[in-house]
Automatic annotation (TrEMBL):
Record protein name field: Probable GTP-binding protein EngB
Keyword Cell division listed: yes
Native organism: Novosphingobium aquiterrae
Keyword NAD among record annotations: no
SUPFAM superfamilies to which the protein is assigned, alphabetical: P-loop containing nucleoside triphosphate hydrolases
Keyword annotations from UniProtKB, A to Z: Cell cycle, Cell division, GTP-binding, Magnesium, Metal-binding, Nucleotide-binding, Septation
NCBIfam families with a match to the protein in the record: GTPase_YsxC (TIGR03598), small_GTP (TIGR00231)
CDD domains, alphabetized: YihA_EngB
Cofactor: Mg(2+)
Domain EngB-type G per the UniProt entry, residue ranges: 46-223
Residue ranges of the TM segments: none
Gene3D superfamilies: P-loop containing nucleotide triphosphate hydrolases
Gene for this chain: yihA
C-alpha cells in the first residue's frame, strides 16, 4: 500500500527514511523473551507483535536471523514438527515491538495429536491476540504456494488477520523460475481477503529483500 508524503516530503524519501529507521531499530537490542506452549504462557499484550509462519524447512529461522542481524537468535528444530511453541523476541530499547516465531506447519510425520495441538494453539493465538498487527507467511521460492500454505492462509482469512506473503531462498533458483514463482504467489494472494497485495522476495543467505522486509515490519508495527 503506497504511503503519502509526510511533512510535505517525497514518498521515496519517506520510504528511505523508514528503511533507515528499521535498520537502526534492528541493529539495537533484540532479545529472546519466552516460549509459550499454550495461551496461558503468553506475555502480556503490551507491544505490537508480528508473527512469522511457514511450513517446516521453509527457512523461517534463517529469515528471522537475517532480519534481526543475528546469527542464531532463532534456531531451527532438528526434527521438523518437533517445536510446538510460540517463541517471542523483543526488539528495541525500550521495547518497540515483538517478533513471534510460530511453530512450523506441514510436517507429514507428526502424530495426529501433535497436529491437532498445533492447530488449536495457532488458531486461538491468531483469533485472540489483539496486539498482533500482521503475520508473515513464508513460502519457498523453489516450490511456490503449496496446499499447506493455502490452509494457513485460509486460517488467517477466517481469523481476519492481515498477512504478507514472503518468498524465501530466492537465490536458489534461476531468475526465470523466480519470476514464475512470484507471479504464482501474487495470483494466490489475490484470492485471499486478508492477504497484503505486495509479495516480498527474500534470500536470508544473500541479504536480498531483507532491508525492505524490515521496513515493512516497522510500518506494520505502527498501525493503529
Amino acid at each position: 500500500m503506497p504511503r503519502g508524503p509526510r511533512h510535505g516530503g517525497d514518498p521515496v524519501d519517506d520510504a528511505d527514511d523508514l528503511t533507515e529507521q528499521a535498520r537502526r531499530l534492528f541493529a539495537g537490542r533484540v532479545e529472546f523473551l519466552k516460549s509459550a506452549p499454550s495461551l496461558a504462557f503468553l506475555p502480556d499484550p503490551d507491544f505490537p507483535e508480528l508473527a512469522f509462519a511457514g511450513r517446516s524447512n521453509v527457512g523461517k529461522s534463517s529469515l528471522i536471523n537475517a532480519v534481526t542481524g543475528r546469527k542464531s537468535i532463532a534456531r531451527a528444530s532438528v526434527t521438523p514438527g518437533r517445536t510446538q511453541e510460540l517463541n517471542f523476541f523483543e526488539v528495541g530499547e525500550p521495547t518497540r515491538l515483538r517478533l513471534v516465531d510460530m511453530p512450523g506447519y506441514g510436517f507429514a510425520k507428526a502424530p495426529i495429536k501433535v497436529v491437532d495441538n498445533w492447530k488449536r494453539l495457532v488458531r486461538d493465538f491468531l483469533r485472540g491476540r489483539v496486539v498482533l498487527k500482521r503475520t508473515l507467511v513464508l513460502i519457498d521460492s523453489r516450490h511456490g504456494p503449496k496446499p499447506v500454505d493455502r490452509e494457513m492462509m485460509q486460517m488467517l482469512d477466517e481469523a481476519a488477520v492481515g498477512y504478507r506473503l514472503v518468498l524465501t531462498k530466492a537465490d536458489k533458483i534461476k531468475a526465470s523460475e523466480l519470476e514464475a514463482a512470484l507471479a504464482a504467489t501474487q495470483a494466490e494472494a489475490r484470492k485471499h481477503s486478508a492477504a497484503f497485495p505486495v509479495v516480498h522476495v527474500t534470500s536470508a543467505e544473500k541479504g536480498m529483500g531483507i532491508a525492505e522486509l524490515r521496513a515493512a515490519i516497522l510500518e506494520d508495527a505502527q498501525l493503529g
